[in-house]
Amino acid sequence: MSDDQDNVNTDLFKNIERLRQLRIEHRDLDDIITRLTMDFRVDEVQMKRLKKRKLMLKDQIARLESQLIPDLNA
Fold first, then answer.
1. CB-CB neighbours of 64 under 10 Å
2. Percent of the chain at pLDDT above 90?
3. Which of the chain's ends, N or C, has fewer CB atoms near its CB within 10 Å?
4. Among candidate residues 29, 26, 15, 27, the one with its CA nearest the CA of residue 63
5. Alpha-carbon span 4 to 59, nearest angstrom
6. What are the backbone dihedrals phi and psi of residue 71, each rounded to the nearest 5 degrees, phi first?
7. DSSP track, 12-39
């Protein structure tokens, strides 16, 4: 196996692992936000920050998924 192929496999593994971590964090944030919405004493600023972080994670996940899908025109 060539060095280039090793690098591609290593990068692919890193991207897949990063995607897995982002999905876990996104799911955890979703759970936290759901629980906080049940609390009438919730800090609205904190809630906005959590929702913004969740949206940022969703964007990162979409970007990584797009990179992992092979280009069909190639």
1. 17
2. 68
3. C
4. 15
5. 29
6. -70, 120
7. HHHHHHHHHHHHHHHHHHHHHHHHHHT-
